[in-house]
Amino acid sequence: GQNIDQPTEMTATEGAIVQINCTYQTSGFNGLFWYQQHAGEAPTFLSYNVLDGLEEKGRFSSFLSRSKGYSYLLLKELQMKDSASYLCAVRDFAHDYKLSFGAGTTVTVRA
Amino acid sequence: KAGVTQTPRYLIKTRGQQVTLSCSPISGHRSVSWYQQTPGQGLQFLFEYFSETQRNKGNFPGRFSGRQFSNSRSEMNVSTLELGDSALYLCASSLDGVGGGSYEQYFGPGTRLTVT
Fold first, then answer.
1. Which residue in B45, B48, B107 is closest to A42 by CB distance?
2. Which of A65, A69, A103, B72 has the fewest CB atoms lying closer than 10 Å?
3. For residue range B2-57, what is the model confidence (pLDDT) as tens digits?
4. How many CB pairs under 8 A join A and B?
């Protein structure tokens, strides 16, 4: 299976930048996903990385280093609505392309 | 197009009962995955169905089962409910999970099951 680790909580100020790290161990890496989940709602897709490097999507960017088993999600120009849980998920072809999720990082944005 | 729908949204059952949850995927999506989400364990994969066949299974007891119909709609069943089964059950659909690709999963709103 996979071990996916991410910090439990992070707090930042409106307008600031926050970086959420995710480390993983997998025998057949086949892609890493980031999801956002607001309290009481379903997770929504944010980004996908399968090759090393940075993927940018507006205020959100995601980085991957396969050799290090490491990814981060960068949230820029934080807004109050960015307060949510951010889930890192890894797909593994050695386990029938199953998607495994980290426990999530709760980000709180303060005014 | 319409998103993933799940019914019912909330359910209260007592120990020993059984429950059936329903999920309708996005039109055209053939893969449906089920997850259990609890505060302590996070999102745990239950199983995945593709073209009416279970393609993948997580580490849950046999009390948890599912099926998929020819229109890709899926149901999951939990028999002999235990208190620990109280959780949010999420269904997610995707075009296809096999072979990689950025086939992101789209989640439904979930069914909140409370076992008393």
1. B107
2. A65
3. 799 999 999 999 999 999 999 999 998 999 999 999 987 889 999 999 989 998 88
4. 58
